[in-house]
Amino acid sequence: MNVVPDTSVVIDGRVSATIEDGQFEGATISVPEAVVAELEAQANDGLDSGWDGLSELQRLAELADEGTIVLEYIGERPSAIERGHASEGEIDALIRDLAEELDATFLTSDIVQAEVAQAKGLDVEHVSPEVREVGTLTVEEFFDDQTMSVHLRAEAVPMAKRGELGEMRYEEIADEPLDEATIDEYAREVVDGAKEAPDGFIELSEPGMKIVQFRDYRIAIGRPPFSDGIEITAVRPIAQTDIEDYENADELKERLLERQRGVLISGAPGAGKSTFAQAVARFISNNDYAVKTMEKPRDLQVGPDITQYTELAGEMEKTADALLMVRPDYTIYDEVRKTDDFEVFADMRLAGVGMIGVVHATRPIDALQRLVGRVELGMIPQVVDTVVYIEAGEVDTVYDVRTEVKVPAGLTEEDLARPVIQVTDFETGEPDYEIYTFNRQVVTVPLNDDEDGPGSESGVDRIAKQEIEREIRSVARGYVDVDLKSQDKAVAYVEDDDISSVIGKGGGRITDIENRLGIDIDVRTHDENPSYGAGGGGGGGGGSGGAAGSQTGQLVEPEITSRHIVIPVDGSHGETVEVQAGGDYLFTATVSRGGEIQVSRGSAIADDLERAIDRKDPITVVPS
């Protein structure tokens, strides 16, 4: 008796299982070279299916050595063109042709293959993959009631994050490191379990990386060359809460049920954002709202009545299109990170779907600022009207977001009225921030600056001074210092040679600046500045004196954007230069071909540079 197996039944391991059951004992098992080629290609791509199939071929060789079967390899290896069309059935056709030539029994666990082979008159034996009960994975044994995640790596001691939300500890959970063979065995057990368990699936499968959802666990498996060693990271939620467990629960519930809203749930990693999102999802679902989720990977723990969607054809935009046909009342979007995510979130919200997004943020206002530049400013309150900030598993801050046409706080001219986004503390009812366009830039102004101490500048004052300096520097060649006397009056100190340029003929130029900013500006020389020479940043710019070596370079005027501090430099393209503030060294950089230096905001260098700009220190660029 001759038996020709196809690739599917070799991968499933059902050839040897059928032989051991006695069905094909003594038969000649003719393995097509096309099957070997497919398995080899899959193994080279790092796919477990290839390795599983090669292991099955080794078991068949052992059965042949024992005399249980006769094993032979037949046919020719498929060409590169045929392998390239494997998904279109070319390899399957080659294997069926060999079975027909040998008048052999065609063995497969692929139902499509079986149907086609029967239609062609072959003797077909279709066997289903063995379904077994999946018990406890070895990885699960590393968890206890307070373990949020387990981190296993070859040649390293197993580690885990344990503790209460907001008080996690990263600690060793074993005495000895695990060897690579053990980690590999754990990884294969996870993948096999996900394939066989009804509550498991493979979320992502790429060469070097697999993400598995198995019961309550999300398990990421990294392999070379993607990682420099085999690594397993298993994460499990350690808390399941109800919305009633949180502060302001009644007000939040009323707000969510009042109408479909746009909500951002924000917080630092591990703060409990997803736990709160799950509580919200269960609450609104229990109150007769149709709820869906958009996740990659899918790891929110929600009830069976909430369908969890992931990327459709690799794009969340297509998932959104499909969901708009389903028309949920609310969609939980976990996590909103990239520009595409924010655009999808906004599109669905503007289509009338209630949206709840989970975002990373270190301050409550940061979640809202991530929309700036990604969504038209006037549309932000229509996209997001509520921001919930989670810290240490508790609701720390809730913001109400709305638009009002008014004169921004701190400005007095009525003709400066404009649309202003007011960000109001939900608990106190007091506005904390205003977001609006000022001199063609979007600014976020804090209205409560108590944390800066008595006598400190308000957010409005800082922004007003920056804008006045920017306008004056556009026409002045030397150092500029601004002293804001009140909400509508300021003094600009400039070099003697710049007075006429700044004021303009008949005062026309300074009048234009005053009209644009809505502030009266008195222009004076640095000699009239009370702080001149006192170390306050008025120590003469552009070569008019100062500390030795501190003003010998090129005086520059940095521009602060939402993401960068841009330093324009005349000449020196491609050269290495030092950036100094008030004569003190800040950092060394290379001037780009476009004649500028860019520093990403949020870095230590950018923080130092911004503080120097706030102090009005002259910023100079000196050849290195």
TrEMBL record:
SUPFAM superfamilies: P-loop containing nucleoside triphosphate hydrolases, PIN domain-like, Prokaryotic type KH domain (KH-domain type II)
GO molecular function, a single term: RNA binding
Gly residues composition-biased segments: 533-548
Species: Natronococcus occultus SP4
Record keywords: RNA-binding
Listed CDD domains: PIN_VapC_VirB11L-ATPase-like
UniProt cross-references to Pfam families, sorted A to Z: PIN (PF01850), T2SSE (PF00437)
Region (Disordered): 527-552
Boundaries of every AAA+ ATPase domain copy: 259-384
Glycosyltransferase recorded as keyword: no
UniProt record similarity statement: In the N-terminal section; belongs to the PINc/VapC protein family.
PIN domain ranges (all copies): 1-115
Keyword Aminoacyl-tRNA synthetase attached: no
Protein name: ATPase (PilT family)
